[in-house]
Design brief:
The chain is built from 14 helices and 17 strands. The chain has helices at about 5-10, 15-25, 70-80, 125-130, 130-145, 145-155, 175-190, 205-210, 230-245, 290-295, 375-390, 425, 455-470, 495-500; strands at about 60-65, 95-100, 115, 165-175, 200-205, 220-225, 250, 255-260, 270-275, 275-285, 305-315, 325-330, 335-340, 345-350, 400-410, 415-420, 445. The N and C termini lie close together (about 5 Å). It holds the Pfam family DAO.
C-alpha cells in the first residue's frame, strides 16, 4: 500500500479531511499552470529549449506524445530508433510530435529528487500478494533502471553534463521495532533474489553507523543506487533526438492540449486541439502523469495527483562531501525523506509529506505546483541538522537555497499504467479496437509511477513504444519484439480499469487497492 493510501485509510485523521482528499482525487486535474514554484533543477534552461516554439504546428503526424519528461523522452527515443525508414512526402508533417504545456521538462521530472533507487523493500509484500515469481519480475524491472540509465548516459556522453553517478544508498531506520521489521523484509529479499541482492548489506554496528555520520540511526540497509540532474538528462536526450531525426521529430513547448476528438473518416483517427492550433494524429500517447485525468476522464480515481516538496540546501560545515559515495533514505513511523548530494555540494532533500497540512491529506489530489506547503517547508528546512546532529555543523547564511513543489501521480492499485487505453476510460469511440484494421491508431498511456519515476518511467516508456510498434507495423522497422521482461501488473486492460479505482465516498467503503 502506498503512503497516499495509508493516509486515506488512517482512522486517526478526521474523516472530513480524508473525504475532501477523495473529492479532489476524483476531480479534473486540469492543465499545468504557467505559474509555478522555482525548481533548482530549472535554474538554467538548455540552449535548444530556452526560446519558445514559434513555428506553425504540424498539420498531422503519426504519433503525438503529450508530455516532455523522462517518460516522453524514452518513448520518443524508442519510436524513432525502431521506426520504419519511410521518407515523408511532407516535411511539415514529422512522424513524432511532442507537445508540452510549459517549458520542456518543467513538470514532475524537472522537479523530482534525481534519485535512481529501489531498496527492494516491497519484495516481501509483493510476494505475499502476487507470488514470488511476480515479485522477482517487478523488482528486476525496477532494478534494471540503474544500469540502463548509467549505460545510456555514457553512450550519449551525458554523464558529466547531467552529473550521472553511481552511489550506495543508505536506507536509515530509527528505533528497534522499525529496524527489526526492515531486517525481516531484507532477509526475505536476500533469500528470494540472491543474485540481485549480492551487493545489499545490513549495518547496525554502532561504530560503523558513526563512520557513516548516522550515529542516531538504529540500522541501515545499503545497496547500489544512482543520482543525476534530471532536467539535464532529459533535455540532453531530447536535444540528441532532434539532432539525429531533424525531419521526423518535433517538440512544441507552451502548447497545451485542450481536447482530443474523434476523426473517424480519416486515417488520422484523432484531432488534437491545442492553444496553438490543431494536429491530426494516428496515435496519441498520454505522458502527463498527474494531469492525465484532464484528457482521459475515465482515469480519475484510478490515477490521481499528489503534491510533493523538494529543497536544495547548503551542507553543514562538519559534513563531508559524499557525492560519489552515498545517497540517503530516512524512514520514519509515517513516511520517509530522500537525499542526494551534488558535485557542487548542495544537498537535495525531498519529502516531509506526512508533516504537511492534515498529515499529508492536504496534498492528496493536488495537481498544481505553484504553492509551497508551509509545514513541509518548516520541516525540510531543519531535518538535516536533526538527523546528522553534531556531524552536520554550522551553515553560513540561509541554509535553504531553493524550495519548490511538484506533482506526482499514484494509482489505486500501486502500479504504473502502461498500454493501450480502452474506450471505457477515454470516452472516445476511436479508441475501439478494430480487428479489420490492425494498423489503425490508438490512444495510449504511460503514467502513475507513485513517486518512484526514476526506477519505473524509463523502461515503462520503452515498453509502451514497443507495444505501439507491435500493433502498427506500418510504423515499425521490425514486427517482433520481446516484452517478456515487462511486469503484467502494469499493463492496461478492461479488467484492471473496472477494479483499480478508489471509492468516491469514505463512509462504508473498503480498501479496494491490492497494494
Amino acid at each position: 500500500m502506498s503512503i497516499a493510501q495509508r493516509i486515506l485509510y488512517d482512522p486517526s485523521i478526521p474523516p472530513s479531511e480524508r473525504q475532501q482528499a477523495l473529492d479532489r482525487i476524483h476531480s479534473d486535474p486540469g492543465i499545468p499552470n504557467e505559474s509555478t514554484t522555482s525548481s533548482f533543477w530549472l535554474q538554467s534552461l538548455h540552449e535548444k529549449f530556452a526560446q519558445r516554439s514559434s513555428r506553425p504546428l504540424p498539420k498531422k503526424t503519426d504519433v503525438v506524445i503529450i508530455g516532455s519528461g523522462i517518460t516522453g523522452a524514452s518513448i520518443a527515443r524508442t519510436l524513432l530508433q525502431n521506426r520504419a525508414n519511410v521518407a515523408s512526402s511532407d516535411s511539415l508533417c514529422p512522424a513524432v510530435v511532442m507537445l508540452e504545456a510549459r517549458d520542456i521538462c518543467s513538470g514532475a521530472t524537472g522537479r523530482n529528487g534525481g534519485h535512481i533507487v529501489d531498496t527492494a523493500d516491497e519484495y516481501a509484500e509483493l510476494s505475499d500478494v502476487f507470488g514470488e515469481e511476480a515479485a522477482r519480475k517487478v523488482l528486476r524491472f525496477r532494478l534494471a533502471h540503474l544500469p540502463e540509465m548509467l549505460d545510456f548516459a555514457e553512450d550519449l556522453g551525458l554523464r558529466e553534463e547531467a552529473q550521472v553517478r553511481k552511489v550506495k544508498f543508505l536506507s536509515t531506520y530509527f528505533g528497534e521495532e522499525p529496524w527489526k521489521a526492515a531486517l525481516g523484509r531484507f532477509h526475505r529479499f536476500k533469500k528470494g533474489m540472491p543474485e540481485e541482492s549480492k551487493d545489499w548489506v545490513a549495518i547496525d554496528n554502532k561504530s560503523l553507523l558513526e563512520g557513516l555520520n548516522l550515529s542516531k540511526a538504529t540500522g541501515v540497509i545499503s545497496g547500489p543506487a544512482g543520482a543525476l540532474w534530471p532536467y539535464k538528462f532529459v533535455t540532453g536526450v531530447l536535444a540528441h533526438l532532434l539532432s539525429n531525426y531533424p525531419d521526423t521529430f518535433r517538440i512544441e513547448d507552451h502548447t497545451s492540449v485542450t481536447a482530443i476528438h474523434d476523426n473517424p473518416s480519416s486515417k488520422h483517427k484523432y484531432r488534437v486541439e491545442t492553444n496553438r492550433g490543431t494536429i491530426l494524429a494516428r496515435h496519441v500517447i498520454h505522458c502527463t502523469n498527474a494531469h492525465v485525468g484532464y484528457l482521459v476522464p475515465g482515469l480519475r480515481g484510478r490515477i490521481f495527483p499528489v503534491r510533493g516538496q523538494m529543497s536544495a540546501q547548503t551542507p553543514g560545515s562538519n559534513f563531508p562531501c559524499q557525492v560519489t559515495q552515498h545517497s540517503w533514505l530516512f524512514n520514519y513511523d509515517r513516511g520517509f525523506d530522500y537525499l542526494t548530494q551534488l558535485p557542487s555540494g548542495q544537498m537535495m532533500l525531498g519529502g516531509g509529506f506526512t508533516n504537511g497540512e492534515g498529515r499529508g491529506t492536504a496534498d492528496l489530489g493536488v495537481s498544481t505546483d505553484n504553492e509551497l506547503s508551509l509545514y513541509c517547508d518548516i520541516y525540510l528546512s531543519g531535518a538535516l541538522r536533526a538527523i546528522f546532529g553534531h556531524r552536520w555543523g554550522r551553515v553560513q547564511g540561509d541554509p535553504v537555497q531553493a524550495m519548490w513543489t511538484g506533482n506526482m501521480a499514484f494509482s489505486a492499485d500501486g502500479f504504473p499504467w502502461v498500454g493501450r487505453l480502452p474506450e471505457s476510460v477515454t470516452h472516445r469511440s476511436s479508441t475501439q479496437v478494430n480487428e479489420a484494421k490492425p494498423n489503425a491508431g490508438a490512444e495510449w498511456v504511460c503514467a502513475a509511477f507513485g513517486g518512484e519515476g526514476m526506477v519505473q518511467a524509463w523502461l515503462c516508456g520503452k515498453a509502451l513504444a514497443t507495444m505501439l510498434l507491435l500493433q502498427d507495423n506500418e510504423l515499425a522497422s521490425a514486427a517482433e519484439a520481446d516484452l517478456s521482461w515487462f511486469p503484467e501488473q502494469m499493463l492496461v486492460c478492461e479488467e484492471r480499469a473496472a477494479k483499480a479505482i478508489l471509492p468516491r465516498c469514505l463512509a462504508g467503503t473498503r480498501h479496494q487497492a491490492n497494494l
